[in-house]
Amino acid sequence: MTRTMPAGITELDYTCWELRYDDDHEVHDGDGVPHFKTEDEAQNAVHHYERDRVGRPNPRRRDQPCFIITAACGHLLDEDGGTPMHHDTAEEAAAVAKSYGWRPRGDGRLRCSADCDQGCNEPVED
Length: 126
Ligand SMILES: [Zn+2]
Ligand SMILES: [Zn+2]
Known about the structure:
alpha+beta; two-stranded antiparallel sheet; two-stranded antiparallel ribbon; 6 strands; binds zinc ion
């Protein structure tokens, strides 16, 4: 299946794991819902999220790969300098990139800021 991605949006080449409690609520921390690359990484984190009454969450694989936002300079759009934000759909990721002021350059890539000196503002070749 081929489809056109919005500028700067990449689908991960793996499917994330997340943690869910037995009541089916997903684990949240200060940055949202944590994602893990492997089941082992998820399993190693369960003790951080143990709660009274509901106990420890269980790793669960998500349904499909997440999407991330990358600028032409290689800068990943993240929150508070932590892990890059993951998005459920390419369309959602594109909307978030726009809300952060990241703009398409015309070559299918994004410019992270007007004063980026890492390559975002180099002329785009046609
Ligand atoms: Zn993810
Ligand atoms: Zn940049």
